[in-house]
Amino acid sequence: MQIKPMRIVTAALLALLMLGPLPATAGFKSQESLIRNVYAHYGSGAPEFSKGLPRDTATAEQFFDPVLRRAWMAPRREPYDFFVQSAGWKIGAVAISILRRQYDKTYVAVAFDNRGRPMKLNFILVNGPDGWLISDVESPHDSLRMFLAQHRN
Questions:
Q1: Who contacts 35 (Cβ-Cβ below 8 Å, separation ≥6)?
Q2: What is the rounded CA–CA span in Å between residue 30 and residue 36?
Q3: Cα-flanking dihedrals φ and ψ of residue 145, to 5°?
Q4: Is residue 104 helix, strand or coil?
Q5: Are the CB atoms for 131 and 138 separated by under 8 Å?
Q6: Which residues pair with 101 in a beta bridge?
Q7: Helix/strand/coil percentages in the chain, nearest 5
Q8: Are 106 and 28 in contact (CB under 8 A)?
Q9: How far apart are alpha carbons 134 and 127 in whole angstroms?
Q10: d(CA 82, CA 85)
Q11: Fewest C-beta in 10 Å: which of 47, 92, 138, 146?
């Protein structure tokens, strides 16, 4: 018995429709790729990559652990963007160095210039089943978790 090619195509399309859209992939394969992908949203190129890290569900799932994910998507008014420590940006090269590895967490130092002003942040990254995610970010004055809680509507 011969299977007709059209039946195979129809069956494959039906299977894809039944599965529905696939969920967004969480996490990154390396700590460096996670940091580089955060700061890719702070460039001066394409509009979708020039407005800072988006606040949508897909971005939150891709970049943040579950607790920080909810805080990232919550409505709020912020005086500045925490990742660049300013309301506007023109960032220079981003330097990344691993400070400490501790079980499933890695502490990563990130340094760059924003409009000529030196910036330093420490990212606390966790390695989960889907890859590396941001657990928190520390500035000299604050942490991302506290900043988001403080400026919640």
A1: 94, 96, 108, 110, 123
A2: 10
A3: -60, -50
A4: coil
A5: no
A6: 106
A7: 35, 30, 35
A8: no
A9: 9
A10: 5
A11: 47
Counts of helices then strands in the chain (DSSP H, E): 5, 4
Give the 3-state secondary structure of residue 110. Answer: strand
Low-confidence stretches of the chain (pLDDT < 50) are 9-24
pLDDT tens profile 14-54: 443 344 433 445 678 899 999 999 999 998 766 666 789 99
Give the chain's length. Answer: 153
Question: Residue 92 is encoded by which pair of tokens?
Answer: 């220079």
Where on the phi/psi map is residue 137: left (φ > 0), alpha (ψ -120 to 50), or beta?
Answer: beta
Give the start-end residues of each E strand in the chain: 95-102, 105-114, 117-128, 131-138
Short-list 125, 149, 18, CA closest to 76: 149
Block residue for tokens 């988006």: 54
